[in-house]
Amino acid sequence: METIWFCLVAVMIATYVLLDGFDLGAGAIHFLVAKTREQRRQVLASIGPVWDGNEVWLLAAGGALYFAFPALYASGFSGFYLPLMIVLWLLILRGIAVEFRNHLKSDVWVPLWDFVFFAASTLLAIFYGVALANVVRGVPLDGSGYFFEPLWTNFRLSDQTGILDWYTVIVGVLALLVLMMHGGLWVQYKTDGAVSKRAAKVTEFAWWGVLTMTALVTFVTFRVQPQVNENFRTWPVGYILPLLAGAGLAGVQIELRRKNQLNAFFSSCAYLLGMLTSVVFGVYPMVLPARDPSFSLTVQGAKAGAYGLRVGLFWWVIGMILATTYFVILYRSFAGKVAAQAEETVPRD
Amino acid sequence: MGSALDVHRLHFAFTVTYHYLFPQLTMGLALLLVVLKTMALRTGRDHYNRSARFWAKIFGINFALGVVTGIPMEFQFGTNWAEFSKAAGGVIGQTLGMEGLFSFFLESTFLGLFLFGEKKLGPIGHWFAAFFVFAGSWMSGYLIVATDAWMQHPTGYQLSQRGDIELSSFWGLLLNPWALWQYAHNMLGAVQTGCFVMAAVGAFYQLTNREINFGKTFIRIGVTVGVIAALLQLAPTGDMQGKMVSHYQPATLAAMEGLFETQNGAPLAILGQPDVAKRQLENPLQVPNLLSFLTYRRWNANVRGLEAFPEDQWPDRIELLYYSYHIMVGLGTLFIAIMAVSAFLLWRGKLFESRWMLWLIMLSVPLPYIANTAGWMTAELGRQPWLIYGLMRTVHGASPRVGAGSAWFSLLGFMGMYSILSMLWLFLIYREIAHGPSHETELLTQATTPVAAH
Q1: What is the pLDDT of residue B444?
Q2: Would B351 be classed as within a structural domain?
Q3: Residue-wise burial string across A150-172, b where 16 or more C-beta atoms lie within 10 A, e elsewhere
Q4: How many domains does chain B have?
Q5: Cis peptide leading into A285, omega within 30 of 0?
Q6: Which of A49, A315, A326 sits opposite B105 (nearest CB)?
């Protein structure tokens, strides 16, 4: 039962990353793809009606994590206190930037929120990568089941790790590049004209970055977290997950050459899904690895009571069916491209 | 540990108090928007659709701030209250998880459709969009109140061998009798905020001699719904809530009422300042025997004062608890008076000429916010010294590794951030009110425009 919940929570987090990932990516490339105020409105409009629903996946995943693995929720959230608070502030800023930007047409109001949207999205993308890397690398848990990580120590993989070290920063950069690609593909698909064209260029650039960094991160991860190596050796069937990621990444290039932007976006989803599931597979049965492996939090150690997990499964399935229905309604009613409005001439490039 | 604990408490108190300024209006307005859309359907008049569009814009701004200030709440259970989360997450994580799945997805989807889909959905479809936004926000309210009710009066749980608190009955948690009354009482408070805001905007338009017809509609709806809510707030919901407290949290009742001595025929304190060290109420203005009657329906019933309980079971902020409760009750009584007089004048057809009454309605707009806040302070301060009543003390609930320095860092950050949000809220809401509903002629059709510009 606890393994089922481990998978369900992982699926919910992955869904959050796939969905809000393109919102954040759109924010990170905001100034690269949109040069005029009207073009920036186009970028924002491509995520406007959906970003809020996408962000709900974070809350829903958080809620599921909370009741299925309370000890993990307690240990992880209090240990990552400082970066989590910063993430919360960034989420607030990103949200109000998207919602409030179009309320006024003033020359100070609009550029200000454009910048806040860009900056908050970019930092969130990096922080998410850093957070994931912290989990993979392991945290300084001790016998009490708790830890507290400062933002940085000496940037080395010692016993007294900080949130930022060379490994987590590398993964943070990879996360930014991945979401730039992912968001670029979304913007390219959802808009037309100059914005779409420039998004294609950014995606192309980001793709090569993702390829290089993925190779590098994969290489070092097998050394940083020995459990990963062990799991893939014990169950070679797991190699299907990194293969999915590789196929997805290749698929992005192939589908773009075929001019199929939607399939390219789905390929990017496959890449993200492959990468995230590889990580989850690599650290299982740990849910929060410790620097000293004997203190790691495992699925067994962190789970909630059996009755709660069983009853949770019932409402989870019902809730998921409803949520999926809403999302189909939402994305259908928002189908089609966001056109540039004629009030400003679109420069050709 | 002492000082870190205080900062963690202040952290949660500040962020949740600020957050709840927004949902109370969201939930209240959600109901009133359904009322407006229903009237539009029944009368076929564009007047009500325009009114709904005007309030939808205010709703949208308010909703956005509710969302962004709400996210930190769920996460703070883990960040600042790790021991509590570890022990009780298996229970309260259920209601919090359900809120995400059942309420937030519903709300976020249908709010978008409600704001931008009026033309596409048609009148009936648009009514349903409004209804689902209402249903989502009220369901969210229930799941949060059920979470709090479980901390006030835990039900449906058992202790595991590890000492964790495990869920043992799903319906026991969800249909906690405490939750049912607290929910009814809380939602009426939210409805009153919505009614006062709507009526106050209407009164503002009357007094400034613009948007006259819309202003009249807003006052009419605000006062009509408001008088019902104000009465139900007192009885049965407030009364039953009080009975729950007297039955399950008798020490809390004594502290709320400023009753130090156990006595037969206990008086009800209307005014007075509690002096906890001397164990007496200074300058008391009391109604004899009334507390005994309200609590037990017998004029001479014995009511236990604080002296009947060991001091380590007393709430630790008795003065604040006493004042919160008295402010809530005092304002609630005032709301009944304001709404009843307004409703009477409305019925006699004199309200729109009674400028003094319009002034009173307009100036009352901060009061329901204060009353709702004071009500929650009564509930949460009254629960002390327990985090989960009878099961876990507040001193044992905080995160052991998060020091006072880290907690101040984030608390000050939130204070700064929320100051900016307050200014933005005031500015944007004022703009909408100044802009007025009579310009709401065009349907917002473009599902691709995030938030409509003027």
Answers
A1: 52
A2: yes
A3: eeebeeebeeebbbbbebbbbbb
A4: 1
A5: yes
A6: A326
**Separation between Cα atoms, residue B382 and residue B191, nearest integer Å:** 24
Q: Do A48 and B409 touch (CB under 8 A)?
A: no
pLDDT for the residue B451:
39
Burial profile A228-244: b = 16 or more Cβ within 10 angstroms, e = fewer: beebbeeeeebeebbeb
Does some domain include residue B452?
Answer: no
Domains in chain A: boundaries = 2-194+284-333
A305 interface with B at CB cutoff 8 Å: yes
* Amino acid code (one letter) for B302: N
State residue B443's pLDDT score. Answer: 54
Q: Which residue has the tokens 């310009």?
A: B439
Cβ(B75)–Cβ(A59) below 8 Å: no
- Rounded to a whole number of angstroms, the distance from the CA of B11 to the nearest CA of chain A is 12
Q: B2 φ, ψ to 5°?
A: -50, -50
pLDDT digits (tens, 9 = 90+) for B217-275: 999 999 999 999 999 998 899 989 999 999 999 999 999 999 999 999 899 999 999 98
| DSSP state, residue B316 | S
Amino acid at B69: T
Collapsed DSSP state (helix, strand, coil) of residue B388: strand
**CB contact, 8 Å: A147 with chain B?**
yes
Mutating which of B105, B118, B415, B449 best tests the A interface, going by the most A Cβ atoms within 10 A?
B105
Q: Which residue's entry shows tokens 């709702």?
A: B372
CA distance B355 to chain A (A): 33
From the list B383, B369, B370, the residue with the least C-alpha distance to B244 is: B383
- DSSP letter at B352 equals G
Determine the Cα–Cα distance for residues A58 and A176; give it in Å rounded to an integer. 18
Least confident of A298-307, B33-42, B337-346: A298-307
ipTM of the complex: 0.90
Expressed in angstroms, the distance from the first to the final Cα of chain A is 56
C-beta atoms of B82 and A307 within 8 A: no
* Residue B325 counted as domain residue: yes
Contact B452 A52 (CB under 8 A): no
- A–B interface: beta-carbon pairs under 8 A: 255
Q: B180-208: per-residue pLDDT in tens?
A: 999 999 999 999 999 999 999 999 999 99
How far, in whole angstroms, is CA B317 from its chain's centroid?
Answer: 21
| A344 and A37 Cβ atoms separated by less than 8 Å | yes
Structure confidence by residue, pLDDT tens digits, A108-120? 999 999 999 999 9
Residues spanned by the domain of B397: 2-262+304-439
pLDDT per position as a tens digit, B320-353: 999 999 999 999 999 999 999 999 999 999 999 9
DSSP annotation of B317: -
H-only helix segments in A225-305: 226-234, 240-257, 261-283, 299-302
Distance (Å, whole) CA B44 – CA B55: 18
Residue of chain A whose Cα is closest to the Cα of B113: A330
CB environment A89-116: b (16+ within 10 A), e (fewer): bbbbbbbbbbbbbbbbeeeeebeebbeb
Is residue A258 less than 8 Å (CB to CB) from chain B? no
Mapped onto helix, strand or coil, the DSSP state of residue B222 is: helix
Amino acid A245 reads: A
Nearest CA-CA distance, residue B398 and chain A, Å: 10
Instruction: Compute the C-alpha angle B340/B345/B350, nearest 5°.
Output: 165
The DSSP call for residue A343 is T
Closest by CA to A92, choosing from A109, A117, A112, is A117
Query: Stretch B376-405: mean pLDDT, rounded?
Result: 94
Closest partner CB to A74 (pick from B67, B89, B102):
B89
Interface test with B, best of A13, A52, A108, A112 (most B CBs within 10 A): A52
- Answer yes or no: is B157 within a domain: yes
- Which residues of chain A are within 8 Å of residue B75 when distances are taken between CB atoms? 62, 77, 84, 88
